[in-house]
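Lab channel / #folding
Pinned by the channel admin:
"Please post every new chain as: sequence first, then the structure tokens as a reply. Keep commentary short and put observations after the output so the thread stays searchable."

First post following the new format, from NK:
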Amino acid sequence: MRISEKSDRDGRGPVTGERPAVPGALSGPASRKLPVPPRERKPALAALALLLVLGGALGTTLLVLRSGDRVSAIQITQQIGPGQPIVPEAMTEVQIADTGIGYVSWVHRAEVAQTFARVTLLPGTLLTEAMVSRASEQLVPGKVIVGLALKAGQVPRGLQRGDQVQVLYVPGSGRGQAVGKVLAPTALVERAGDPDGGNSGLVSIVVDATVSPTIAMYASSGEIALGKLPGAG
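Reply from TO:
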């Protein structure tokens, strides 16, 4: 006698190929992705970016073109101290790129020769209007130019026009207990050496009128020495 199969297969439901539905899950058309709206185009931003690119390219082109422009300027060839006249032999013409800086043009050299240096001008300096003045700040009332004829050891080597020096009293051997002293703490060198490059002991300095007689008296007896002030001026 055959034993019949249990209809419920030991309490389990019928086996099928489908998985049971998960509560809350979307099925059918609802499970499909929603359409994404197209990105909004911004023509104003695109136009602005294009203008910036074109502007940068135009600026670069102008810089390249202007770099080829050359202008004539004045270059200083000799050191000139503050308050000293800018003499014609201390100037030369150079051609430089037009960078927009207000260098003094070579065509104004005659006018510049009637002015004075406002600051120390070193060789190679390109002259601007801010570097010159119509009146000297050193050669003013109350100042005197004193000429000195100094020996070796009384004048620093390499002294040149425009340097600042101390004027020192150095008593000679016959002065007994005399002590050296500073006659002028600072003085401007107006000229150093012969114009022909000869005797370097010939020096002209600008000092106060109150001490010029004393300096001249000691200089006549060879008791004057100059000390250069590094970086002065």
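NK: Helices lie at 43-67, 109-112, 212-220.
TO: also worth noting, The CA atoms of residues 19 and 145 lie 116 Å apart.
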